[in-house]
């Protein structure tokens, strides 16, 4: 971090004497989760669970692909990789340090954020937090250009595996570009590759210094740690001064492109048809309702596409992001089944969602699936840490509802998934011309009159 004196930096990054492992809670019920914001802006969530023999940590930075300069695509992903390389305060590298502590770890970069996860025994938590503070403030110390070159090749390989070797991956990028236009969310594979080739070690260090700072970070601890002890550790290792200046982020163009249709030519026994719309920002009530709509569409559309024709795969989802994402439908179907028939089936079921015309048992399946997913999340310290950080990132948490609300769901579908807003990508030897969804003229928006 710029502006830290050497003395302050050494004080921040000097490990404290090993602290005793926090004692197991003797109370019948664990304390309520605690949330704090440190003087430097770091947001902290600590949740005790004495049933767990470990502590799960997630540290998220509000930096992702949306912060990348146009000519430095993938730099956020590249810096994520560099965080695991040896540097002055971890000569063996973060990964080796965590393995020696008996921990597990991972990381991911999205368009909006970069998150680092680790699960360690409680006694190893002080060292873990020290390492994370060192990576936040002093990654540049001792980081070598050879590390950048090695990680650049790894990121290139990951891109090839995700997109070059999978036709549907290329088609997904094409759909994003149609739906999200010139916004960084809509950048494609050529942008990623050009950015990787152009990025220097100085570029990566400058990006890290600009965006890895406590005032844009969220730290969650869940497991066998009391809130008081956890907060004491956090203050010890993350008590660095607040940044002197606010972070500067690049301005963003509109996040909605011009609806259109593209063809990816491919000779194969199957074809892919993708349909996408702009979707609302993550955390909004409409995003929550469209999540239910995606599950309902999978239940409604799938059986109608089978028809004995060897239908193989249907995925409906919502790529929810801070500035709006993509609601998408992806269908893999036999090469002799037209994309038009797929779109006609989808169109019919969208109208059924708007009119509230679908069986109760389908609604029950969706509600049960959501309840089971929520229960699984509550049982995992690592997942609970992730969910806590996601809630920190929302100014207005979505309204909680018990099950599917047909009226609210119909209204969200009517607002966001209108036929004129849809874009199409076909992966096939020959594309069907003039794809479009059936007009909604005369369609009655469902109202819950119960």
Task: Describe this protein's structure.
This protein has 450 residues and is of the alpha+beta class. The protein folds into 2 domains: 6-237, 2-Layer Sandwich (Cytochrome Bc1 Complex, Chain A, domain 1); 261-428, Cytochrome Bc1 Complex, Chain A, domain 1. The chain is 41% helix and 17% strand. The protein is built from 14 helices and 11 strands. The strands form 2 sheets. Strands 1-2-6-3-5-4 form a 6-stranded mixed β-sheet, sandwiched between helices. A hairpin with a 4-residue loop joins strand 4 (104-109) and strand 5. Helix 2 (75-82) crosses helix 5 (145-164) and helix 10 (285-306) crosses helix 12 (360-379). The protein is globular and about 65 Å long. The N and C termini lie far apart (58 Å). 43% of the residues are buried. Residues 1-28 and 394-399 have low confidence and may be disordered.
Silhouette: globular
CATH class of the largest domain: Alpha Beta
Strand order across the biggest sheet?
1-2-6-3-5-4
What is the alpha-carbon Rg in Å?
A: 24 Å
Q: Extract low-pLDDT stretches.
A: 1-28, 394-399
Could you say what the CATH topology of the largest domain is called?
Cytochrome Bc1 Complex, Chain A, domain 1
DSSP strand count? 11
Distance between the termini: 58 Å
Order of helices and strands: HEEEHHEEHHHHHEHEEHEEHHHHE
Strand content: 15-25%
Mean pLDDT: 84
Total separate domains: 2
Quickly give the CATH architecture of the largest domain.
2-Layer Sandwich
Q: In terms of structural class, how would the helical and strand content be classed? A: alpha+beta
User: Helicity level, as a percent range?
Assistant: 40-55%
Q: CATH superfamily name of the largest domain?
A: Metalloenzyme, LuxS/M16 peptidase-like
- Major beta-sheet overview: 6 strands, mixed
